[in-house]
Amino acid sequence: MEAGESVELEAWLEARESFEPPESFVEQANVSDPGIYEEFEEDWPDCWERAAELLEWDRPWEGVLDTSTAPRYKWFTGGRLNAAYNCVDRHVEAGRKNHAALRWIGKRGETETYTYGDLERETEAFAAALRGLGVGEDDVVTLYLPMIPELPIAMLACARIGAPHSVVFAGFSASALETRMERAGAEYLVTCDGYYRRGDALNHKGKADRAVRRIDRDIETVVVDRLGGGLPHSLGENQHDYDGLIERNRGRTVEPVARDAEDMLFLMYTSGTTGQPKGVKHTTAGYLSYAAWTSHAVLDVKPDDTYWCSADIGWITGHSYIVYGPLALGTTTVMYEGTPDYPDKDRMWEIVENYEVDQLYTAPTAIRAFMKWGSQYPEEHDLSSLRLLGTVGEPINPKAWKWYYKHIGGEECPIVDTWWQTETGGMMITTLPGVATMKPGAAGPPLPGVDAQVVDEAGEEVAPGEAGYVTVNKPWPGMLRTLYNNDERFLSEYWEAYSDPDADEWVYFPEDGAKIDEDGYITILGRVDDVINVSGHRLGTMEIESAVVGVEGVAEAAAVGGDHEMKGEAVYAYVILEDGYEESGEMEQSIIEGVEEAIGPIARPEEVIFTPELPKTRSGKIMRRLLEDIANEEDLGNTSTLRNPEVVDDIQNKL
Ligand code: WT7
């Protein structure tokens, strides 16, 4: 292409506000009939049987939806099924034993392929091993593993025997692991010796051991030898070698346990406004059918595809769209342990080319990095295998959307900008790629059968273009059922704001701001609670603040999210020191280390700002919004209602 042409194309792309899905895509799409929206509406809630029918049941459901104990909804009542059977065994039985299920790519370029047959053997052996250690139905097993094949294998092994797993992101600290194990009452842990980061071997078992030591009960621990002796470790009491267990249990039969539709499949901890992390409970039937349905309808996954979601399985995206959704549909799912820039910045495109990836599902933070690195990296590779692109985790701005569309999708792939949350289990607001016009920057309309709207404080729908809050007026199969061991908080966090319990009207509040346009397309504006979204990962301000206050010499702290070019948001920590302590580089360092120790490097403050005071309302509440505006160097408006308006100048001068 001539330089002039490329400039013209750029300008044309920039001016465009909407894009139609390519004809070639529509022709082959799993869902291409626009009538589906109306069909789902008319047939609600029975429309969701379509999702349930993607699974194999030991006993069919009797009722689709039970609202009698709302908002504790029950889906597919009376049905029984096993999630691991649905993700593995049934594909083997269908003659696809030798079909690749999992293609793993390690940090050092190692690769492994597990066929459905392999996956069945491994999960069955590990399921037998877990049973041998005493794991029974409904016992929570904590999985603290990096992106290695043993993680999905352990998840499926748990599912096979009806033991809910609770995966804790490997980048979390010992103390974050401890809290999550304590809150889940977990007595079993699967972890590993270590893993590589930028060429260095990290001691992961050390973190796991520290957490276990602080827990006042016996924890049976399984240790995967990831480094093959690269980091010598020894096994203590109640600690078992993964490979040894597998060898001893190979060939044992473990029948998949037929679980009740509503039985817990897993727990996933996430952050909220206040207090401790929340244990989001997902169920066997509702969650799995929803993950499978959205993988089918939105990601257009077909059994013969090679599908790649670049998230970490330590978060919900990896649960739903690396493991459960794709495997339920019998496809080949790619699992990549490494980072996008190692050994070079074309690593992702090399993988797409080598594996002939059909769908790529990634995050805006990654797309912003690709943009910054430049289009020469994708241009070095043949990306023509790609059929669909997706994004998740935070708003994507139109510029990044268009870059992705042009340089990765070659203007031939629809993009799905999927809004959802840990709590929703799967996608809620996004275009159907084979049906709808795409508008860069807007996630799209709610999916068929999903009743989401944008409302004002009073719950009235806002006019097009005005800012409001997302609410969901009808239940959906993938929804969380409660917060583990904290049903009260489940009610107060998600249902109190907009429901009318007297009228038995239940409205789910996801705590996101949004606006809607004339065509019903929703643009997500971001969290309205005190949650910071760093590179698409949700961090609670309270947790960060208590970590900072835990550092010797710190009297008070406020953590807020400031805009960040790459991460979307970054942590800004405003800190008041105790008398007798001076602000210094060392103090800053110990605050940063304190946060890393308490939560993990992901929560590391980008800036530590020492201040003699924090801006407070007359009633003494810290004005977080104001601190955010200060971090973002925005116009602060009227600050005279503060109890201490003079502090604003002081802080601004520090930045
Ligand atoms: C929060 C949920 C869903 C898996 C990843 C994060 C934000 C998510 C989008 C999107 C704008 C988005 C929301 C949401 N978010 N997807 N497509 N556009 N914002 O899961 O940790 O539970 O975080 O991520 O603010 O509430 P999570």
Backbone CA Rg:
24 Å
Silhouette: globular
What would you call the structural class?
alpha/beta
Mean pLDDT across the residues is 95
Major sheet size, sense and barrel closure: 7 strands, mixed
Number of helices in the DSSP assignment? 21
The CATH architecture designation of the domain at 531-654 is 2-Layer Sandwich
Cofactors, ions and other ligands in the entry: 5'-O-[(S)-butoxy(hydroxy)phosphoryl]adenosine
Name of the top-level CATH class of the domain at 531-654: Alpha Beta
Strand order of the largest sheet: 5-4-17-16-18-19-20
Name of the CATH homologous superfamily of the domain at 531-654: ANL, C-terminal domain
Distance, first to last CA: 45 Å
- List low-confidence stretches: none
Please provide the count of β strands: 29
Q: Estimate percent helicity.
A: 25-40%
CATH T-level topology of the domain at 531-654: GMP Synthetase, Chain A, domain 3
Strand percentage: 15-25%
